[in-house]
Write a structure and sequence with these properties.
Strand order of the largest sheet of chain A: 3-2-4-7-1-8-11-10-9
Helix content of chain B: 10-25%
Helix content of chain A: 25-40%
Number of helices of chain A: 14
GO molecular function (chain A): acetyl-CoA C-acyltransferase activity
CATH class of chain A: Alpha Beta
Distance between the termini of chain A: 15 Å
Protein name (chain B): DNA-binding protein
Number of strands of chain B: 14
Number of domains of chain A: 1
Radius of gyration of chain A: 20 Å
Oligomer: heterodimer
Shape of chain B: elongated
Radius of gyration of chain B: 33 Å
CATH topology of the largest domain in chain B: Thiol Ester Dehydrase, Chain A
Strand content of chain B: 25-35%
CATH architecture of the largest domain in chain B: Roll
Organism (chain B): Thauera terpenica 58Eu
Pfam family, one (chain B): zf-ChsH2
Protein name (chain A): Lipid-transfer protein
Largest sheet of chain A: 9 strands, mixed
CATH class of the largest domain in chain B: Alpha Beta
C-alpha cells in the first residue's frame, strides 16, 4: 500500500437512520436533519465540526441548508453524485478522498427522500420536455413507445440474460425469497414478519415481463446519514470504526443510464467490473474476503451479473450459486441481510450502506458471524459505484 | 344488462322524505347585508330599510338566491340548528360508494321560488330522494344520476307555507380507467376530457434526420462519412474515429428481436396493455428500440425475424417505426 492509497485512511464513525415508511409525514429536509444529527450523536462529534458533505444529485435537500442548520462555519468540500442509485456508494468514496487528502476532516454523507409520498419513480410519467438537452433527446427513443419505467428497462437486459445463460424467473424469485427472509426478521423492514415463498413470487403479477411484482423493490420514504472522518480520529470516538478499505465509481464501454442496449453484449455489467477491479486493487482483497455483501437490488435480475462481475461465481453461473442458496441465510455469501430494497426499504441504496456498517460493527439484526469485510454496490444499469467496508 | 342486486336496496329508498333541517336564525338584516356585500349585490331593496318601505313589500326582503343559506350548518360540518333531523339524505350515495363508485360530481342545482321571504321569518327544509336514473356511462365514468329535492318552508301559526325549492342532482360513479374524449352526441356527458397523446420524442440537430425519415416512412441510420461506421442512437461524433462528418443511409427495415419486454403495469394513458417493446438488431448491425405489433405476448422469441412498418398516432402528429414478425 502506498501513501497515495485511499484504503484504510477514512472510517465511518457515525450512523443515523430515520424510520422507513410509505409516508414519512414530514419534509425531506427534516428527515435529512434527523438522520444527520443522529449520525453525529452516534459518533460523538459536535455538528459544528462538519467540514464537508456528499449526497446524490437527485437529493432535493441542499447541503448548504444542512450546514446552516448544523451551525457549520468552515465547510470546504461538497459534492453530489449523479445517476440515482448508482450514487449509493460514491458519496462515501468522495468523503473518504476528502478526508484522506485533508481537505475536510469530517464529512457527512446523506440521502433523504419522500420518494413514495412525493414522487414515485415507477409511475411512468416524467417531465421530459421538448428542449434539445441530452436527456430529453435520449429518452425520446423510449418515451413515445411507453417504454418508460425502470422495471421495463431492466427487463430488457434480464430477458437477454435469461436467453444466454438459462436463468429463469424462478432464479430471480430465489433472490427475492432470500432477502424477504431477512426482512422478515428485521423490525425496521417494511416487510417485517412477512416472508414469501417461491410460489408467491411466481404467482405475483407481471409488471414488465420478465419482471414480476416481487422482482421489484419498494418505494419508500426515509433518510440515512453517516459521518466520515480519519481512522485515527475514529479510534478515539464512541463507536467501533468502520474502515473504508476501497471505493470506486464505474463507467464502462458503451455506458448509458438504464439504456445501455447498444453494447456488443447486454448480459453483463461491465461498469460493475470496473468497480470490482478497482476495489480489489485498492484493498488487496478478493472475492473470498467477504462474509456478507450488500448487492443493489432495485430489481432482482441484476443481482445475478453482480455476483459474476465480482467473481463470486463464473460468468453465467450466478443462477447455480443462487439455486444452491449461497446468497441466502446460512449460505456462503448471505446478501442484503437487512432485507434489501426489496424487503427493508428503498432509500436509493444508502440503507444498504447502513447495513454494511452494522455488519462490521457487529450490531446487525441478522448479524453474520465474524464479519471482517463487507462489499457494498450501488445502482445497476447506470454509472455506478461500490465500496468495501471492514474492521481495522 | 341486469342491474346489480344491491341497487334494489338503493331503489327502495326512492321517494323517501327526510326530516326537517332548521335555520339557526330567523331571516335578519345583518346576514342579508353581509351576503349582499360578499356577492356584490347592491339592490337597496335588500339593505336600505327606508327605500324598502316605499316598495310593494313594505320593508326589507331577503334575496331569493340566498334561500339555501338560511338553513346551512355554518362553519363547522354537521352543526345543524337544534331540532334538525340527523337522517342523511345522502345515505344512498354511501351505499353506491361501498359498491365501487367512489366519485361524485354535482351536475344540477336549480332553485325555484314561491315568494320573497321577509325579516323575522323562521325557515326549515325537508328533503326527498326524488329519483335515481338508469346506469349511465359518460366521459367521466359509469354510474347513476341521483336527484334530491329540498323544499323550504316558513313556520306559521296557521300552517307552514312553502317558499321555494332546490333540485340538486349529482352523478355518483366509478371513474373511467382511461380518460377519453366525450362523444359530441352524448348529452349526459361532462365536458370532454383532454385526450392524452403519446409523448413526442425529444429532438436535436444530431437526431432530427431519424424522425424526419420516419415521417417519410423511411428508417434512417447515421453513418460516419470518414470510416463508414453505422451508429445508433445518433451522436454528433463517430464512436470509432471521432470524425464529426456524417450522413445517413436508409435501412432495409429487416432485423431480428435481440431482446424484448412486455409492459403490464402501471397502465399509463394512452398506451394499450400489455405493451410489447423490442430491442431490434437491424440487419445492418445497429440496434433500436421500437414497439412490436402483430404479436401475442407469450409468443415473442429472441431471434424472431421482424420487419419495420410505420404507424401513425394522434391524428398523424407522431409517426413511429414499429416492428412486425415475418417468416425467417
Amino acid at each position: 500500500m502506498t501513501d497515495k492509497s485511499l484504503s484504510g485512511r477514512a472510517a465511518i464513525a457515525g450512523l443515523g437512520v430515520t424510520e422507513f415508511s410509505k409516508n414519512s409525514g414530514r419534509t425531506e429536509l427534516r428527515l435529512a436533519m434527523e438522520a444527520t444529527l443522529s449520525a453525529l450523536a452516534d459518533a460523538g462529534i459536535d455538528p459544528s465540526e462538519v467540514e464537508g458533505f456528499s449526497s446524490y444529485t437527485m437529493d432535493k435537500v441542499p447541503e448548504y441548508e444542512i450546514a446552516r442548520l448544523l451551525g457549520c462555519k468552515n465547510v470546504k468540500f461538497f459534492s453530489q453524485i449523479p445517476h440515482g442509485g448508482g450514487g449509493a456508494c460514491a458519496p462515501l468514496l468522495h468523503a473518504a478522498m476528502a478526508v484522506a487528502t485533508g481537505v475536510a476532516k469530517t464529512v457527512v454523507v446523506f440521502r433523504a427522500m419522500n420518494e413514495r409520498s412525493w414522487y414515485r419513480f415507477g409511475s411512468g410519467t416524467y417531465g421530459f420536455g421538448s428542449t434539445p438537452i441530452f436527456e430529453n433527446v435520449n429518452y425520446g427513443w423510449y418515451m413515445p413507445y411507453g417504454f418508460h419505467t425502470p422495471a421495463a428497462w431492466v427487463g430488457m437486459f434480464a430477458q437477454r440474460y435469461m436467453h444466454e445463460y438459462g436463468a429463469t424467473s424462478e432464479d430471480f424469485g430465489r433472490v427475492s425469497v432470500a432477502v424477504r427472509d431477512f426482512a422478515a426478521t428485521n423490525p425496521a423492514a417494511f416487510f417485517y414478519g412477512k416472508p414469501i415463498t417461491l410460489a408467491d413470487h411466481q404467482a405475483s403479477k407481471w409488471v414488465a415481463e420478465p419482471l414480476r411484482l416481487l422482482d421489484c423493490c419498494q418505494e419508500s420514504d426515509g433518510a440515512v446519514a453517516m459521518v466520515i472522518t480519519s481512522v485515527e480520529r475514529a479510534r478515539d470516538l464512541k463507536q467501533k470504526p468502520v474502515i473504508i478499505k476501497a471505493g470506486s465509481q464505474g463507467i464502462a464501454e458503451g455506458q448509458q443510464s438504464m439504456t445501455s442496449f447498444y453494447r456488443e453484449g447486454i448480459s453483463d455489467l461491465p461498469e460493475m467490473g470496473v468497480v470490482a477491479n478497482e476495489l480489489y486493487a485498492q484493498s488487496g482483497l478478493g472475492p473470498d474476503a467477504f462474509q456478507t455483501a450488500v448487492l443493489y437490488d432495485h430489481f432482482t435480475p441484476f443481482v445475478l451479473p453482480q455476483l459474476e462481475e465480482f467473481g463470486f461465481c463464473k460468468r453465467g453461473e450466478a443462477k447455480d450459486f443462487i439455486r444452491s442458496g449461497e446468497h441466502a441465510r446460512g449460505g456462503k455469501l448471505p446478501i442484503n441481510t437487512h432485507g434489501g430494497q426489496l424487503g427493508e426499504a428503498y432509500i436509493h441504496g444508502m440503507n444498504g450502506v447502513a447495513e454494511a456498517v452494522r455488519q462490521v460493527r457487529g450490531t446487525a439484526v441478522n448479524q453474520v458471524a465474524d464479519v471482517e469485510n463487507v462489499l457494498v454496490t450501488a445502482g445497476t444499469g447506470v454509472p455506478t459505484s461500490g465500496i468495501i467496508l471492514g474492521v481495522a | 344488462m341486469a342491474e346489480q342486486e344491491w341497487m334494489s336496496e338503493v331503489r327502495a329508498k326512492v321517494g323517501r322524505e327526510y326530516g326537517r333541517v332548521y335555520a339557526w336564525d330567523e331571516v335578519n338584516a345583518p346576514m342579508i347585508r353581509q351576503w349582499c356585500e360578499v356577492m356584490g349585490v347592491d339592490n337597496p331593496l335588500y339593505t336600505d330599510a327606508d327605500y324598502a318601505a316605499t316598495t310593494e313589500f313594505g320593508g326589507i326582503v331577503a334575496p331569493p338566491a340566498m334561500l339555501q343559506a338560511w338553513c346551512l350548518e355554518g362553519l363547522h360540518a354537521n352543526n345543524y340548528a337544534p331540532g334538525s333531523t340527523d337522517e342523511n339524505p345522502y345515505e344512498v350515495l354511501k351505499t353506491m360508494e361501498a359498491h365501487g363508485m367512489p366519485s361524485v360530481v354535482a351536475v344540477n342545482s336549480d332553485l325555484a321560488f314561491e315568494r320573497y321571504v321577509k325579516l323575522g321569518e323562521k325557515l326549515y327544509y325537508t328533503t326527498k330522494l326524488e329519483a335515481i336514473g338508469e346506469e349511465k356511462t359518460t366521459a367521466l365514468g359509469t354510474g347513476f344520476f341521483v336527484t334530491l329535492i329540498m323544499s323550504f318552508f316558513s313556520q306559521k301559526p296557521e300552517g307552514d307555507e312553502k317558499v321555494g325549492q332546490l333540485t340538486f342532482r349529482v352523478f355518483k360513479f366509478r371513474a373511467a380507467n382511461v380518460p377519453t374524449a366525450a362523444k359530441a352526441d352524448d348529452k349526459d356527458s361532462a365536458p370532454a376530457v383532454h385526450k392524452i397523446k403519446r409523448p413526442k420524442p425529444g429532438m436535436s440537430d444530431d437526431t432530427r434526420f431519424y424522425w424526419e425519415g420516419a415521417n417519410a416512412g423511411k428508417l434512417m441510420i447515421q453513418r460516419c462519412t470518414c470510416c463508414s461506421t453505422l451508429r445508433h442512437p445518433p451522436a454528433p461524433v463517430c464512436i470509432k474515429c471521432h470524425s464529426f462528418d456524417w450522413d445517413t443511409v436508409q435501412a432495409s427495415g429487416k432485423g431480428s428481436v435481440y431482446s424484448f419486454v412486455v409492459m403490464h403495469y402501471p397502465e399509463v394513458p394512452p398506451f394499450d396493455y400489455p405493451n410489447p417493446v423490442g430491442l431490434i438488431e437491424l440487419d445492418e448491425g445497429v440496434r433500436i428500440i421500437a414497439g412490436l405489433v402483430g404479436v401475442k405476448r407469450d409468443q415473442i422469441k429472441i431471434g424472431q425475424r421482424v420487419q419495420v412498418e410505420f404507424q401513425s398516432f394522434d391524428d398523424g402528429e407522431l409517426i413511429l417505426p414499429m416492428f412486425r414478425p415475418v417468416a425467417a
